[in-house]
Design goal:
27% of the residues lie in helices and 29% in strands. The protein has 397 residues and is of the alpha/beta class. It folds into 3 domains: 9-70, PUA domain (Archaeosine Trna-guanine Transglycosylase, Chain: A, domain 4), CATH 2.30.130.10; 80-185, RNA methyltransferase domain (HRMD) like (Transcription Regulator spoIIAA); 207-396, 3-Layer(aba) Sandwich (Rossmann fold). The strands form 4 sheets. The chain has a 7-stranded mixed sheet, with helices on both faces. A 5-stranded mixed sheet has the order 1-3-4-5-2, covered by helices on one side. It has a 5-stranded mixed sheet with strand order 6-7-8-9-10. A hairpin with a 5-residue loop joins strand 3 (42-46) and strand 4 (52-58). The structure holds S-adenosyl-L-homocysteine. The site of S-adenosyl-L-homocysteine has 17 residues, from helix 6 and helix 8.
Length: 397
């Protein structure tokens, strides 16, 4: 690529066009030889024969020079305002059943909602934005104004403390785009109140993507003894208690996170929660040695393989943990096991679970395959948008 141009219609060079036919919507700068792209802009993308491939978004500093956004009516290129207004309106309409004044919900899920590099999570009156593309970054003002106009938020926060921003030439920073500073906000799910810390909570403050698995745990929990491994601030533990669990043990290496779980349970008079601060690998081994058994084990670790190179080591970690987790299931018990490592593909995760179960003295059924909720849609052309895998296993004697 050479100097910048303002031409809004671009024809893919032959190599990029060939790669594009596989369906993936990203184009690397190396494959765009000879083409001059306008900088951090919307463009209309044509295949070499002139066939329309819809809108694209360019990134001047990234190795991924062009990301397709999907079809757009007519032949031209909308203004950023038109583009954002149309996509935000559609994304929010699609979440009508999940969105509400006390909701925790992902309103915009990047490419899957047609806006590469934009995530917007709603926590009641607080909106947290993540921007990982230069185009989105340049229009954060418009996005915040749109949210203010449609929702009157107490705060719109930009969480830009993400290492991937470097690849777009964007600084790591956190700043308020609109409203006043809100340190903590409560959301409600399955009749449980969760406290979300927008500035320093994991991700944008909460693991919104695990709603389907929390719902499953809630529905299985009546009378159950539950072990919540890698509990963070106890989102699964609280869902289990609200579902009628008899006792819940939450295990995490972060004492402040466990303290928040206890505080949330106490505030809602949910009884039966015990917490244990420590390395989950050791704790689960000790529990197994002591002969403890659980009706529900939740295993939701951090990603063990963040790159393709880490997959082999990551598989070992998942295998070891799942082996022990299966062995502390009571007869009829359920293991809800998750991996959020994109590089560990679903079939490989299931292979790991098979290996973990090979010498068990009982059978384990794969009862259900879950993933992120419908507010985190997976665009079929972008496998990266489907990263979370949850498997519900049941011990059968
Ligand atoms: N299940 C949680 C999210 C888990 S995030 C939820 O639904 O909200 C991963 C958690 O694992 C973090 O809280 C982190 O503190 C914890 N963690 C990471 N490595 C750990 C280890 N070896 N032992 C115990 N906890 C660990």
């Amino acid at each position: 690529m050479t100097a910048e141009s303002s031409e809004p219609i671009i024809a893919l060079p032959p190599r990029a066009a060939k790669i594009g036919r596989r369906g993936h919507p990203w184009f690397y700068a190396d494959d765009m030889e000879g083409l001059t792209l306008p900088k951090n802009a919307l463009v209309r993308v044509h295949a070499p024969g002139g066939r329309d491939l819809g809108l694209g978004m360019t990134s001047a500093r990234s190795k991924i020079a062009l990301r397709l956004c999907g079809p757009w009516p007519g032949e031209g290129v909308p203004t950023p305002q038109e583009f954002l207004d149309q996509h935000l309106t559609r994304a929010i309409a699609q979440r009508a059943g999940l969105n509400g004044p006390t909701a925790g919900v992902r309103l915009v899920h990047s490419e899957a909602d047609g806006i590469p590099g934009l995530v917007i999570d709603r926590y009641a009156s607080v909106f947290v934005v993540q921007s990982t593309s230069a185009f989105v970054e340049a229009h954060l003002g418009l996005i915040a104004a749109w949210l203010v106009e449609h929702f009157t938020p107490s705060m719109v926060l930009m969480r830009g403390d993400l290492p991937v921003r470097k690849r777009e030439g964007l600084p790591e920073e956190v700043r308020i785009l609109a409203g006043e500073k809100v340190e903590e906000v409560e959301i409600e799910e399955l009749g449980v109140r969760h406290t979300v810390r927008p500035f320093d909570g994991h991700k944008t403050g909460f693991y919104l993507d695990q709603r389907p698995a929390r719902t499953r745990v809630h529905s299985l929990a009546s009378g159950a003894r539950v072990l919540d491994l890698f509990s963070y601030q106890g989102a699964f533990s609280l869902a289990a208690l609200a579902g009628g669990a008899k006792e819940v043990l939450a295990v995490d290496q972060s004492q402040p996170a466990l303290d928040r779980a206890t505080a949330a349970a106490d505030a809602q008079k949910l009884v039966g929660l015990t917490t244990m601060c420590g390395n989950a690998f050791d704790v689960v081994r000790d529990l197994r040695s002591s002969g403890k058994q659980y009706d529900i084990v939740v295993l939701d670790p951090p990603p063990f393989c963040k790159t393709r190179r880490e997959v082999e080591g990551g598989k070992r970690g998942y295998r070891d943990l799942n082996r022990i987790a299966m062995r502390i299931l009571a007869p009829g018990g359920h293991l809800i096991t998750a991996s959020c490592s994109y590089h560990l593909r679903p079939e490989v995760f299931e292979e790991v679970l098979r290996q973990a179960s090979f010498d068990l003295p009982f059978r384990v059924f794969l009862e259900e395959r879950l993933g992120a909720g419908t507010d985190h849609p997976a665009w079929i052309r972008l496998p990266e948008s489907e990263y979370l895998k949850v498997r519900v296993l049941r011990r059968v004697d």
